[in-house]
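re the bet — no i am not wrong, look at it urself. input seq straight from the record:
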Amino acid sequence: MLSLTKVSPHVPFVGAPQFHNWLKTQGKTKATIRESMNYAKRFGTVLDTQDALPLLTLSPRNKQHAMSALANLSKFQGRYNVFLQIRQRYSLKWSKGDSLQYFERFFNEELTFDSMLQQIKEMMRLLPLFMARIIKFACIIGLRPSEVVECVRLLNSSNIRHYYNRERQALEHYRFPSIFLRQTKKAYVSFVTPEMLELVGNGSIYRGITYNDIRIACWSAGIKCNMRFGRKLFASWLRQEGIQPEIVDMLQGRVSPSVLTRHYLVPQSTFKDDVLQALEKLQRQLSS
């Protein structure tokens, strides 16, 4: 059985290539794989010694990352029951978030709709034109920053015929599961008009763009990369325009587990048109 030994992060450990490949087969992103590998190198011996005291010295966030890496490693090694026993013995809990943090967000003046809109506009003003268009497009489709960039790259590739459904006026993300249907983060569909697609279409410059390129450009311009605000503006605007919460959730890759949503809720027949009309208004707001 393969096992990890606690060594320097710069030295390959036993089973590293196989574990790396296994993570890829599980649909993990490059960033998640890199993070899991790093924490597995540091704390992989916990599964051997069953001594989780090193984890207790970590910050809550790093502890979650270490636990996730160990959970994946134990599944790869066929020792998940060992990980569960360690969790129970040391009372290691998965974080569910701090409810007070969510409450305080409503009173954070930096996260009001107008404030986020102005920061997005500032990014659009200072970044190169093709990046500014990506930022604007992010607000229209409501995806996560890395997903927006992948979306733009696909739109400028030969895959566009299999991606954009003109009859539905929808980008069908689910057709590319390795990109958009990850274990914990998913994107299924985005409603956009052909005119909206022109923002980021027909440009070879978009094919090699990465999210990191945008972050570096923001740093060079002396501003924060608040591309994530596009997703927040999208959801807030649609709710303000009266779009059902369940529709907003679906467009952002969240499907409620409730019996009502899964079996009984029937959306209004005009929901797609209502969404597109609301997004056209948002596009005008971003251009004003």
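see?? The longest strand covers residues 170-172. told u. also The mean pLDDT is 87. so pay up
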